[in-house]
C-alpha cells in the first residue's frame, strides 16, 4: 500500500492485529451499552472475567495499587487470547489468518510496553530517588544486576510467548500436511488450551513484575 509516496508493507500480523482490535472494540461496546442491575448471561460472563482480572491484579500488584493497572491487564489478556485463537477460523474457505504472536515483532512490542509500565510504576510509587535507592539495596555492588533485569524480563516475556506460539503453529502445519482430516484434536490443544495458557502466563508475569517494581 502506498501512502504519501511511501510504500507501506502491511504484514499478516499487522492486518490480523487490526482485525482483533476492531473486534474487541465492538464487543466492548455491545457488552457494556446496556448494563443492568439484574445481569443476563453475557453480562455475567463479562463480570466474571473482570473480577478474575481484578483478583489477579490484587494478588500480584497489591491491594493498594492494583486499580490503575487493571484496565491494561484486562486488555492485554483479551488481546493475547484472541491473537492465539484466531487460527480457529481458518476452516472458512479462502481465509488464512496466522496468530500475530508468532511474529517476534508483535511479542517484542508487547514486552516493551510491559517494560514501560514497570518503569512507570517504579517512578510513580517510589519516585526517582526511591527507584535509584532500590537499585543499590541491599548492596551497591548488585546495582548492575538489577539494571540488567530491566532487559532480561521483557526479553524473556517476548521470547517465551513467541517461541511457544511459533512452535505450536509449526507443529500444526506439519500435522495438517500429514493427516489433514484427523488433526482436530491437535488443533483443539494448540489453538485453544495452549493459546489461552500462554496468554495467561504473559499477563500473569506482567502483573508480577509490576508488583515487584512497586514493592
Would you write up a description of this structure?
The protein has 215 residues and is mainly alpha-helical. The chain has one domain. The protein is 73% helix and 2% strand. It has six helices and two strands, in the order E-E-H-H-H-H-H-H. A two-stranded antiparallel ribbon has the order 1-2. A hairpin with a 2-residue loop joins strand 1 and strand 2. Helix 1 crosses helix 3, helix 4 (104-135) runs parallel beside helix 6 and helix 5 (143-178) runs antiparallel to helix 6. The longest helix has 36 residues, at 143-178. The termini are far apart. The mean pLDDT is 83.
- Give the total of domains: 1
Strand order of the largest sheet: 1-2
Structural class: mainly alpha
The number of helices is 6
Q: Provide mean pLDDT, rounded.
A: 83
For the sheet with most strands, the description reads: 2 strands, antiparallel
* Share of residues in strands: under 5%
Q: What's the overall geometry?
A: globular
Number of strands: 2
Q: Percent of residues in helical segments?
A: over 70%
Low-confidence stretches: none
Overall radius of gyration: 20 Å
SSE topology string: EEHHHHHH
* N- to C-terminal distance: 47 Å
